[in-house]
Amino acid sequence: MRRSAATSAGGVALLFAIGLLFSGFASTAVGSYAGSVVMADLLRRQVPVFARRLVTATPALFVLALGVDPTGALMLSQVVLSIGIPFALIPLVVLTSRERVMGVDRNHSLTVLAASTVCVAIVGLNIALLALSFFG
């Protein structure tokens, strides 16, 4: 017996939705764990696992409860999150190239050149993304 294309597409869509849901759970778990390490080691605070997961999942559930288009909300959230990329990438390149910070393990000139080139390309593409997303 042959299935129709619509039935197959519906099954694939369901599998994709389940995979996306579990991907979100995994991302939330990793983010919660990273946050707990930062809070425990740097801030000397303990927050229960359930509370961390609840806090990280609440904004997404709130957006869905409002009836906002999930795809549009996801795209917008990723564009907004991309604003932070230069604030992590530029100090990474600068600090790993300083002997005062890294000692003998600092990056060599060729590595700094390659990293700087990639950094400029990523920041440039990020600026283009932000311009197209908000002003395009």
From TrEMBL:
Q: What is the name attached to this protein's record? A: Divalent metal cation transporter
Signal sequence, start to end: none
Q: Where in the cell is it found?
A: Membrane
- A single Pfam family it belongs to is Nramp
Domain of life from the UniProt record: Bacteria
Source lineage: Bacteria, Bacillati, Actinomycetota, Actinomycetes, Kitasatosporales
Keywords of the record, alphabetical order, are: Membrane, Transmembrane, Transmembrane helix, Transport
Entry-linked InterPro entries: NRAMP_fam
Query: What topology does it adopt in the membrane?
Result: Multi-pass membrane protein
PANTHER family in the cross-refs:
NATURAL RESISTANCE-ASSOCIATED MACROPHAGE PROTEIN 2, SOLUTE CARRIER PROTEIN FAMILY 11 MEMBER
- Residue ranges of the TM segments: 50-68, 75-94, 114-135
